[in-house]
Structure formats: structure tokens, C-alpha cells
Write a structure and sequence with these properties.
Helix content: 10-25%
Distance between the termini: 26 Å
Structural class: alpha+beta
Radius of gyration: 20 Å
Number of strands: 15
Number of helices: 6
């Protein structure tokens, strides 16, 4: 069981600016009757889980009736998002894509849905006991891109495996990255910084052949550290923003999937 609801989670994205209705039904915008949806619940950590999570285990839900029950019964009340330890990370998927990500803390009755915090009573989770399918998490690491890509293609071709790649791993296309610092005193979050930087880079270099991600930010000072995955030649010509780390080759190629037992 979690000993505290307030352990620091520095990498958890919480949207403090989003409008939060007084209440909502989770996943209310999805038509589960189409049969394309699956909900995965994966342990957030190997330590300090709530006993209920240990009883349920890592799980998958494809049953349309149960998904519709969750949609109807999980009526959430707005609640400040806690930066704390969580029992589960929940992935709602449609086909091969993750369409919603949530973090669930059973003890604190807290859930963060797509970065926004709500209250979710423990009994709603207890009601899942005995109704879910078990899964096994697959984590594989390679140190050569060609071997990693071949293995990944095999995983994608296996109908018993869901590949958690959010549309594709960046290392499938790029073997390295560099990092730069983006500064805007009026920033409200890293997503805005990424969008602004991407637009400026595309305009300056007339190219979309790169991917950006935030690797650290200080909203108060308006500074965001951004990693740019790209081909090495692109990095050599980059002078738009201060470079904080020169082009570096990716040293391992990792992938994650869920095996449906």
C-alpha cells in the first residue's frame, strides 16, 4: 500500500491551465460498441502498490459491456491533480493507437486523465476484480537499429501483442539527436514551446524532417530544454537556438508491448 499520496513525480505531465468541469464521465466521447477499443491497466511502479492493485494485477479490458459500464459509472468530480505515486497507468487504445492516458491512485482516490485531475472512488476500481483479462508487459532492448526494427515489425505482426509505440518509435527513422534551449517568458507549458519551436524551425530550414520532445522546463523563467531527433546533417546546420548538447547517437533501442494471455 502507498505510504503517502505526495511522493514527488517530476516527469508526470499535469495540465494546470486546463478547464475542468465540475464532473464528467470518463471516456464519454468514445463509442465502445464499435469493438475497436481496449483498456490496459499497467503497474506504474514495482513498489508500494495498493493491495487492491496487487489483487487485480496488470490487466486488459476488451469486453464491450464492461467498457460501457466504466464509461457510465466512472463519474468523476474535479479534484486538484496530486504529484504523487500511482498504482496504475491506464492506456485506452483504439486499433493500434493510444488515444487516452491516465494515472490512478487507489488510496488517494485520485485519477489524472490526459493531464487533468479528478476524484475516483475506490469501489469503482474494486468492481473490476475478477472481470479483467491478464496481460504480461514485454520490454525489449537492442543495441543495433536494424535488429530492433526487425523485432518490432515482428511484434506488430503478432495479433496477441499490443505494441506501445504511440504511432511509431522515433528511433525507427533517426539514430541520433541534439538538444537546444528555447526561451519565452510568456510560456504556459512545454507543449506550447514545442509548437512554437517546431513552427520556427520549419520556416527557417524549410524542413519537417525532425521530431521534438521536451526534456525539462522551468515555466516561471520560460525556459524549455528541447531534444531534436533528426539526421546528423540537419544538426550541423542548426543555429536558430542555443545548442546545449551536440549530436549524440542513440545507444539503445527499446520497445514495450502487452502480451494478451
Amino acid at each position: 500500500m502507498l505510504s503517502s499520496c505526495y511522493r514527488s513525480v517530476p516527469d508526470l505531465e499535469i495540465d494546470t491551465t486546463a478547464h475542468k468541469p465540475d464532473s464528467l464521465r470518463v471516456y464519454d466521447n468514445y463509442d465502445f460498441n464499435s469493438g475497436e477499443y481496449e483498456l490496459f491497466g499497467v503497474y506504474w511502479s514495482d513498489f508500494q502498490r495498493n493491495s487492491l492493485a496487487d489483487s487485480i494485477g496488470n490487466f486488459a479490458i476488451t469486453d464491450t459491456t464492461l467498457l460501457n459500464q466504466i464509461q457510465f459509472n466512472w463519474k468523476l468530480k474535479a479534484k486538484p491533480a496530486l504529484r504523487c505515486g500511482y498504482d496504475y497507468k491506464l492506456y485506452l487504445t483504439k486499433g493500434d493507437s493510444v488515444i487516452s492516458t491516465s494515472f490512478l491512485n487507489i488510496l488517494c482516490e485520485s485519477i489524472i486523465v490526459d493531464g487533468v485531475g479528478y476524484e475516483l472512488q475506490r469501489d469503482k476500481i474494486a468492481n473490476l476484480y475478477g472481470k479483467t483479462d491478464s496481460i504480461e508487459t514485454i520490454r525489449v532492448v537492442f543495441y543495433a537499429q536494424d535488429l530492433a526494427v526487425d523485432y518490432l515489425e515482428g511484434m506488430r505482426a503478432d495479433s496477441t501483442v499490443f505494441v506501445l509505440d504511440n504511432g511509431g518509435y522515433v528511433w525507427e527513422k533517426y539514430i541520433g539527436y541534439f538538444e537546444f534551449t528555447y526561451t519565452n517568458s510568456e510560456l504556459s507549458g512545454s507543449e506550447k514551446a514545442l509548437a512554437e519551436a517546431r513552427a520556427a524551425i520549419e520556416k527557417k530550414y524549410n524542413s519537417t524532417d525532425f521530431e521534438l520532445e521536451s526534456v525539462g522546463s522551468n515555466v516561471e523563467s520560460g525556459i524549455v530544454k528541447i531534444r531534436a531527433y533528426c539526421h546528423e546533417e540537419f544538426s550541423k546546420d542548426f543555429k536558430l537556438y542555443p545548442v546545449r548538447k551536440e549530436y549524440t547517437f542513440i545507444i539503445n533501442y527499446s520497445m514495450t508491448g502487452f502480451w494478451r494471455q
